[in-house]
User: Which sequence fits this backbone?
């Protein structure tokens, strides 16, 4: 296992301390239980947005804490759900009485723990609602997931809902908005290599020198098919077809395209993917009016990429364009 | 060789077409000869800034084209200097009579070709000046370089000089500013793995499963020493010591720290590195007032990281903070 770490035990804590040292202007890291909150939390007069999940997907979610996006994020151990007490503490820290929305990726542990945390917070008198992201079209059920996995659309939901919170939406409005983003977002990914969970010390799965995993999950869960490596354009075609066919797009629809790197794939390859994906979107009559290209929801050092399409409307576009100031997204 | 590409021959062209499709609002890609210019080039009433170098280091340089940074960038073949005709065409395209500064990383081919292009442009009546970046403290001479290699400080010089151009600096002022940035910037990097140049089809160098290369160059050039893998904190200490000791810092100096990923290293590891690097800077009496953490000057899919320190003054800080709108840097 080759990693720039001190020890498997310290990966998450060391990284949190790095984030704290780097971004004190934007966020404050709380320990025991661990969560990352906006430096100016709690922010008056708005619904608060909390997310979280296993570490190893950086910048998700901690890198999305800041003005216009998340109020707090709860980092679990690597590829492990955060615990209810983290979520409860984060929710308490950002609540100002307008309610708190939990954005939850659809993995069994995350869903269960966020539900438990929501119950605990409600018992404290905090209004909490949840929205689950399950946008991965690759497989129906998966390791650690009943139903579809939550992947790239999470980034888009956190941005769009964060903007809505800033604009004064109510808790129920933001919850419905998040569900609408999820309903209109579709993703699929693939891997050229496995990743290695620090504690495990060996690759999560193994691929031959000429193989790839189509439809891989962000924790290295099996996808649709293991097959021989193909040229990028063919890979993109195999990712785009299930994404486009899963949602009833109409010619002329405006979409946001996220081409996401899995952690070990360099930007030059993501642009090669974007070229073909944009071409296929155009051929399908879709108008890509917004895009994001880079490593936004990673899987440690996995080499691979995923594509997310989100069907836009005027509301989504306006909220996407609204100012954001976080470590990973800023405009 | 596992890459998301179509063929080694098409890597650069496919990626350029992806950039063009993705960032038409910010830049325009010109072909034969290839260069990337601001969408609104030539921009009236300012000195123009042009850089370039081999591809495979994305987002450098094309991702830094836009308002507040580069007017144009020339992408060569992977790890190969662009040709003088690319540089000449780019220089002509952005020149508005105020002069053009070439920012050149210190590699023999780049320096020679930029000199040739400058001569060609001067023969056309364009005022051209050059500034060379040679900030890598790892080794004195290297494969493809007489003197120190140009690495991370290039990103900082392009940002700071781009802001100065927007603010109305003259050609000579921007040239001197760039040289001052170079004089105050120091970098060193290391690799956990090699990268594979697409045309070569096999790794540039080989490292054992428990080895790393300290002081590696951005093309995989040999560094100071190949050694057994160590914990991140020890690696950071070995990178910071030569950087700090090379420049006569004084206690209380303000610095900008860039923790750069080499392409295959995920963000979680960069934050682990930042934590220790910031701690060591503090112990040396340095005050890290600005920072940048992420993959900004990569080496294809190489796993590894580099650290750059730039000694700030009020002028540098102000220019660093000035607005920038490029694919890779935006605020």
Assistant:
């Amino acid at each position: 296992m080759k990693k720039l770490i001190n020890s498997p035990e310290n990966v998450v804590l060391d990284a949190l301390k790095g984030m704290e040292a780097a971004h004190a202007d934007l966020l404050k890291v709380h320990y025991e239980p661990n969560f990352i909150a906006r430096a100016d939390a709690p922010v008056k007069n708005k619904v608060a947005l909390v997310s979280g999940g296993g570490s190893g997907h950086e910048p998700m979610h901690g890198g999305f804490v800041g003005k216009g996006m998340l109020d707090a994020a709860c980092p679990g151990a690597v590829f492990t759900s955060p615990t209810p007490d983290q979520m409860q503490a984060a929710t308490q820290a950002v609540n100002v009485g307008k309610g708190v929305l939990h954005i939850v990726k659809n993995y069994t542990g995350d869903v269960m723990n966020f539900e438990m945390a929501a119950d605990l917070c409600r018992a404290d008198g905090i209004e909490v609602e949840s929205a689950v992201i399950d946008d991965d079209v690759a497989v129906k059920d998966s390791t650690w997931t009943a139903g579809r996995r939550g992947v790239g659309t999470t980034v888009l939901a956190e941005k769009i809902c964060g903007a809505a919170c800033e604009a004064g939406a109510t808790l129920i409005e933001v919850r419905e908005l998040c569900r609408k983003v999820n309903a209109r977002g579709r993703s699929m990914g693939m891997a050229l290599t496995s990743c290695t969970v620090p504690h495990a010390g060996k690759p999560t799965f193994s691929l031959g020198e000429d193989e790839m995993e189509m439809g891989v999950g962000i924790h290295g869960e099996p996808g649709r098919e293991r097959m021989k490596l193909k040229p990028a354009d063919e890979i993109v075609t195999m990712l785009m077809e299930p994404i486009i066919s899963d949602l009833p797009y109409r010619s002329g629809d405006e979409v946001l395209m996220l081409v996401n790197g899995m952690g070990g794939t360099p930007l030059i390859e993501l642009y090669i993917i974007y070229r073909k994906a944009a071409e296929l979107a155009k051929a399908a009559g879709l108008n890509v009016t917004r895009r994001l290209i880079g490593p936004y929801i990673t899987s440690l050092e996995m080499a691979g990429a995923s594509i997310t399409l989100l069907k836009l409307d005027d509301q989504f576009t306006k909220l996407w364009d609204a100012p954001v100031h976080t470590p990973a997204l800023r405009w």
Summary: The mean pLDDT of chain B is 97. The longest helix of chain B spans residues 267-283.
